[in-house]
Amino acid sequence: MVFLLLDFIKKYFLTLDPEIIVQAPARINLINPLDAVEGDFWMPSVAITGVEKPLSAFVYLKKISGESRFKIYKIENIDSELQINLQFQDLLVKEISEIKNNFDHEFKLVYASIYRLYKTSKHFWKRYINENFELGLLTTIPIQSGLGGSASIIIAVIFAFAKYFDLYNNLSYLEEEEFPINRDIMAEMATKVEDNDLKLTAGYADRYLISRGGLSFCSYYGKINHRGLSEEPLAVYDRIDKTYKIDKLPIIICFSGVYHRSEGVHQKLRSLYLKKEEKVLEGYHQLAEISWKSRFALMKKDWKLLGEYFKINTKIMNKIMEGAGFQYGIGLANNILIKLIEDHSQVYAAKLTGAGGGGCVFALVNPEKIEIVLEDWKYRLNKIITDEKLFKLKFPSYPSEIRKKLIKAEFYQIKINLNGVKELSLK
Known about the structure:
The chain has 427 residues and is an alpha+beta fold. It has helices spanning 2-14, 96-101, 108-120, 122-130, 149-164, 183-197, 205-212, 262-274, 278-300, 303-323, 332-341, 370-386, 388-394, 402-406; strands at residues 20-29, 42-50, 56-63, 69-78, 81-91, 133-139, 215-219, 236-239, 251-255, 347-353, 360-365, 410-416, 422-424.
């Protein structure tokens, strides 16, 4: 099904005569959330696409005769038929002051990505202001879902421009103190888009995963202070899916339907960590320990043992976040979804991915029973949504109003994305 939907998107874009189409995947963190303070730690994470939904951001670029413009597209289900419709279009701003003025607007991710390219490459800027082109964007990653959707858009835009202007891995146009735009530099640029340009607390993990792809065990040692490019080490990205021959993960994702703002969580936790708040430091060091231990479980494909680490992860993060002032720890909806399925005989653990407060959780399950667990999770969720008495019986201390938001929950089976951001064939 994912290939059908992916093909559907690609075929539609091809009708627009693009010169380049780019796809950037989503991601989940297996032990998390360290991404606000990951500069002292290491993390196992995985780039993903969905089995039935590509869970990706798509960008195209093409030359046009008129003024440069950008378009935003959306997939809609109208009368039980999928359609791709133009949601928004406007002229593409080319004055730096106007670009920065758009940092507070709806399409800030696109403009901040362009600004970061301006800061990184003089050759990019010469071509950007002197050529006319159309940029189109479509994403199938739910917004504010904890799947790296913002990073996916940013990296798709940066990669598309880098390929379109022949800057990708090209040393020919470098000026003094510039660096070639490659997968590591794109990850660093994407972090600076949010951290520096948009003033949103963000870490490096999402960006390296989406840029590089695969299942990784990544060290961010020396990056705690988020300094400028070449003023701190690059991350050490160790692909372990190929090393350990892990071609799939028995994981089901549930997007709660509750949107979250990850920077609000990361900002608070990062501030407490940098202030060396004792309980926060203790919690993160415990996470770091189960993080490196989880690698041994992964190499054996010992899903039950990995599940035990995930359970510890959830307990630690609830404690850290409650101590930081978040009333329901990792989030009301997240804890409900975890508790709904964690006692299933074929589920090894359920845990948060992303910052918490909403977004997504995922269940690690018996690889032979994925479909059974998926249907049961949907069934259990529907029961508490439709039966208030059952909800109060299971969750007596939780407000029943949350059931209205959980109606929007979505479930995804996933595949390991092997390529990271990539250019799609125009054939």
